[in-house]
Design brief:
Blueprint: E1 7-11, H1 16-28, E2 33-37, E3 54-57, H2 64-74, E4 78-81, H3 88-93, H4 95-115, E5 120-126, E6 136-137, H5 148-164, E7 170-176, E8 178-180, H6 189-198, E9 203-206, E10 212-213, E11 215-217, H7 218-231, E12 236-241, E13 247-248, H8 249-260, E14 265-268, E15 280-283, H9 286-292, H10 300-325
Parallel strand pairs: 1-2, 1-4, 2-3, 4-5, 5-7, 6-15, 7-12, 8-11, 9-14, 10-15
Antiparallel strand pairs: 10-13
């Protein structure tokens, strides 16, 4: 992919989605140098591939001078901006920190990009910018975030739109729906269920089980972000990234029971139930499909199977290491 020639910057590249993006870049390119900017608050050093083509900059986006220095030294052709606080319970408990990292940090990056302009800039937004509604969400419909995280992502989109009016950079915001897969660094619902199953639980304690979400496998998300970076020719554009199908936690548990071969019961734990929750969050994906030709490759079932296999392999590896350590 010639669009990725020379250096590429991935902020949050040691995180959940970030590791998938970096892995895809290594697979899709042969000579590009990939820079990962991550403060390792949620990211993990082990998520950064051991490759001479990948360099980790352990830097915080709120450090304006450090971000500017990295942009000045790298002069990346493409920037994929993923770094953010995004676990909603944490964001709600730390609203000032969330706005500082997500909004001020993004502004620092944009100002650095303004001085050393990349050709392409894609930022991860979120379906959390949408208001509560029962039907599918379209990019041109009115937004209405219901929490501090969603608000920070909507502000990010407006920041990027303003930046696009002043810079010769192709800019896009990707509204990610509910991402799942191996390497999750926050206790979202699917990794929480899988973790309980792996540790032998037959009665799964979980919170809200009726609301439905559009779950998308992390590899599909990484490929969507890179497709947007490669193919979008707009000065500024918003794209939904989801599957167009929604499932409840009950349905996820049923599939995981089949995949794992376990007999599982659901226990709705009062201390895990959110005070309020939207009943639906569904993606309309016509824009990214029609304009860029992107479609998800994983269904919920195949994604959950891939996740379970990854977790089972890791569990076996840990058990083998423990057995070897005992002699």
């Amino acid at each position: 992919m010639q669009k990725y020639a020379n250096s590429i910057l991935v902020t949050g590249g040691a995180g959940f989605v970030g590791q998938a993006v970096v892995t895809e870049l290594l697979d899709q390119t042969s000579d590009s140098q990939i820079a990962v900017l991550d403060n390792l608050f949620n990211g993990r050093r082990s998520h950064v591939p051991d490759s001479p083509r990948v360099t980790l900059y352990e830097t915080d986006l709120t450090d304006e001078e450090a971000v500017l220095g990295i942009m000045r030294d790298l002069r990346p052709v493409t920037v994929v901006h993923l770094a953010a606080l995004h676990f909603i319970p944490y964001c709600n408990a730390h609203p000032t920190e969330t706005l500082d990292v997500n909004v001020v940090g993004t502004q620092n990056l944009l100002e650095a990009c303004g001085r050393h302009a990349p050709e392409r800039l894609v930022i991860a937004s979120s379906a959390a910018v949408y208001p509560i509604r029962d039907g599918a969400n379209f990019e041109d419909e009115a937004v209405g975030p219901t929490d501090i995280y969603g608000l920070s992502k909507w502000i990010n989109e407006k920041q990027l739109e303003l930046f696009s009016q002043q810079a010769d950079t192709r800019c896009a915001a990707a509204r990610l729906f509910n991402v799942f897969g191996p390497g999750e660094t926050n206790p979202h619902v699917i990794p929480e269920i899988v973790n309980q199953i792996v540790h032998g639980a037959e009665e799964i304690a979980i919170g809200n089980v009726k609301p439905k979400r559009d779950y998308i496998y992390v590899t599909d998300v990484a490929r969507a972000l890179l497709t947007i970076a490669e193919k979008s020719e707009h000065s500024y554009r918003v794209y939904n990234v989801g599957t167009g199908a929604e499932y409840s936690v009950e349905e996820i548990l049923e599939q995981l029971a089949t995949i794992s071969g376990r007999r599982l019961k659901l226990n709705v734990a009062a201390n895990r139930v959110r005070a309020s929750d939207r009943m639906h969050l569904l993606c309309d994906m016509k824009r990214i499909g029609n304009e860029l030709g992107w479609r998800p490759e994983y269904t919920l079932e195949s994604g959950l199977s891939a996740l379970w296999q990854s977790v089972a392999e890791e569990d076996s590896r840990v058990e083998l290491q423990a057995a070897c350590a005992k002699g």
